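User: Need the bound-state model for flavin mononucleotide:
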Amino acid sequence: MDKIKENRRFMMSEFNQDDTQSDQEKGLPQPPLQKPVPEGALIIDLPKRQEMEFAKTDLYECLKGRRSKRKYKDEAISLKELSFLLWATQGMDKKSEDNYRTLRPVPSAGARHPFETYLWVFKVEGLKKGVYRYLALSHQLMLVKEVDNLEEKANDAVQGQVFVGKSAVTFLWSCIPYRGEWRYLNEAHKVMLLDAGHICQNLYLACEAVGSGTCAIAAYDQKLCDELNGADGIDEFTVYLAPVGKY
Ligand SMILES: Cc1cc2nc3c(=O)[nH]c(=O)nc-3n(C[C@H](O)[C@H](O)[C@H](O)COP(=O)(O)O)c2cc1C
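Assistant: Bound-state model below.
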């Protein structure tokens, strides 16, 4: 019970009740807006999202159709569709000149945007199967690695929720907590998870618009997901994921 009560505190607000200085207040440099790209990495340019043709353009229809979908056709999605889904969830529309903040289709407390997007690509036109990372600042993809038996490994990493391995692509959001902590210290963690909810809701609605479906997933194996993506599990770790496919 003590643990439960302790966890409840995490959901409450304690903003401005502590005079500990944040690293931002101490004048320490802001962490990078995006995880660095390793030298020699394979980079893929994504189509412009303006080229999208939508299955549904009416917000009301998208909201009405939004349900968690766990059965997908054995069909690829196009790179254009993927490009749109990436923009809708984490795409960058504006960056301030001093690199202090980015503005995106999702809100984020203090515009910290503490996430990286990984993709487990199974069936996307023009992409090899493998693990990719979205480079939001340049709207590109980076190949993290090709993986043998990715479907099997993905299913293990989500504790046997086999519809993940049958998706066209699975989105995973990892958190780099220091991006939020730099500004908000102990208040960062609650708001970062609130931010993650917005991202996934945008994925649900954007999927409806392109004739695909998704399902939020919070039941996953932390270590296996982090290992597949190459996150260290301390300064970067998976917080949420969502498979996408035609239905
Ligand atoms: C934070 C969160 C975590 C979830 N985790 C899972 C999950 O691990 N596996 C799953 O099959 N569905 C998961 N879901 C989907 C819910 O079961 C689903 O939203 C709920 O049953 C309501 O159905 P609807 O989304 O179709 O309205 C999750 C949803 C949310 C919002």
